[in-house]
What does this fold into?
Amino acid sequence: MMVREFVFGMPAGGVAQAPAVREVTWDAISVYEGPTPPGEFKFPWWLVGIGAAAAVAIRTQHIMKKEKHS
Amino acid sequence: MPLITTATQEITWDAISVAAPAADIEFGGLYIHDETDDEDYFSRNGLPFNIAYGHEVYGNYYITNIGDVAIVISLLIEVIDPDALVVISEWEGPFTVNPGVNMASATTNLFTLDKNGLWLIHGRAEFDIA
It folds into this structure.
């Protein structure tokens, strides 16, 4: 059990000038079985590159076929 | 010329001792209610409480006036998540609490345990003679 308690000031033998303060912090809850935090999403730009290359290749093939026939 | 002297005697008594009334408090236990499972957890049974991710809970602590006089007290309760973020911070009071076994308490609103790890509850009491 972990409890940390602090005493900041108490009225000592007379009228307190300021309110006395006490603090405590409890290690209260341990949470388990949660999902692992998701990693940072990275847009798959390499897919765009492959798509562009494929489009250029198809277009080139199409033009070459057209030139052959004409 | 004749020498004139005056005889003098003095005395001082430690006569009266005045003790100002002492104000003092003691933190009682921490209590957590798991709303999802309808379970109660008390710090006297050990800390931390093991509660599953995603559950909705609220927390509460109390103080006891162990001094000689009535006090006016304000209580802060804070919930600190595993990333050290204060997710709840509430002041309650001021309450007037008589000496003896009289108590005051602070309670959080419901909150969801949406992070793995250790959650802290922080209590702060500010009090003065009533």
Notes: Residues 57 and 63 of chain A are 10 Å apart (CA to CA). The longest helix of chain A spans residues 45-69. The interface with chain B takes residues 1-3, 5, 10-11, 13-16, 19-35 of chain A (CB under 8 Å). Chain A is about 35% helix and 30% strand.
